Amino acid sequence: MRALILIAALLAPPLLTPVPAAAQTTISPRCLIRTEPMSFRPYSALDQAPNTTTSQIEVVCDPLDRISLVRISLSQGRSGRHHDRTMTRGGSVLHYNIHTDPGHRRVAGDGTNGTVAPVRLQRGAGRATFRLYGIIPPRQRIRDGEYDDTLRVTIEF
User: pTM score, two decimals?
Assistant: First the structure.
């Protein structure tokens, strides 16, 4: 079975924009998919360190409906490139990316061009959790404001 979910990468000043609620989608009577929005803390071009955050996608199936394999794929987003995703605000661009590891070495994607489409093998009750790691490289000159990008997430089980 395949499911398409949209997640948003969002850079927003605190207290100015409400954080979007987690998405929740029921695919069949027995499976539920939960996603957390990926929200970064306020970005400053003066920061020396990258701006990082995490998010997760969870697939939970009724124990009677045991899943053996779950795979997720992430689209390229507005940039059209997995290895150089961008959030935009009008004509301004802020480079960022999403990885499958906390060291930011494996780009989350669809398994092509050196990207990783994470897979989880399950035994017993159907539950698979995928943690994603977002990063905005430091020292990018941008205009103030809220930047965003939307990715399509495909979940296969």
Answer: 0.80
